[in-house]
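User: I'll paste a sequence; please echo it back and then give the predicted structure.

Assistant: Echoing your sequence first, then the prediction.
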Amino acid sequence: MQWKKLLAAGLAVIGMAAVMAGCGGNQAATSSSGSGDGKAIVVGLDDNYPPMGFKGDDGEITGFDVDVAKEAAKRLDRDVEFKAIDWDSKEAELKSGRVDVLWNGLDITEKRKENMMFSDPYMDNRQIVFVRKGEQGDVKNEKNLAGKTVGTQSGGTTEEYFESNKELKNSFKELKKYQDYISAFMDLENGRIDMVVSDEITGRYYMGKHPDKIEALEVVVGPVSQFGIGFRKDDQKLHDEIQNVLNEMVKDGTMAKISEKWFGKDITKH
């Protein structure tokens, strides 16, 4: 019988240790986030989309949207985690709960509104044409893209526009889709495609790094869009919390300061 008593005592000690460890683990999780619910906000982004969100020279994710998200999370007393995703599968990533928000130069479109809820727009965005330096040719409007090899990002607003405008798309020699705009611009530099149709903000940022190789044309493709943050349709609470913080950041000038850091002026919406 003595061995049974010892076994029972041992199991009791182990059980108590497990309970204490469990309590300690919960406390650590809450403490690490600095928030009431102990959960970091997971931001889904394309980490090769400068200047909105990308890996800097030090390997860390940086950019305009990254800075805004960090400040918003700080004001909400929450941690924030940036998760690089396949942008072509962004809606699936959001719906599955693998990310909490899509926050990376995301255009607000009627099609996307069917599957997600958006914040108020915070910046305008045009899709324009970029070519190799000195090779504007006869491109004056989107109809002049006929017969050209055109590059753009897969899953982006430009691709959606081309897919909805079959006559325009079918006029191209070829439409090449890339995982990110940086790859498209590299192919443009190397002569593999004739032009890139891209978000103006991203394209001009890249052009600024390669002023002797890339040129922007004042040729707008499709409608002018607006950037917003994408949420799951059933996540009204997080939507409202972040929207309220963004409103505060606009009011106190923080959004303007972050914009000036990345664009040299305030181009955000007020």
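The first strand starts at residue 41 and ends at 45. Residues 2-33 form the longest helix (32 residues).
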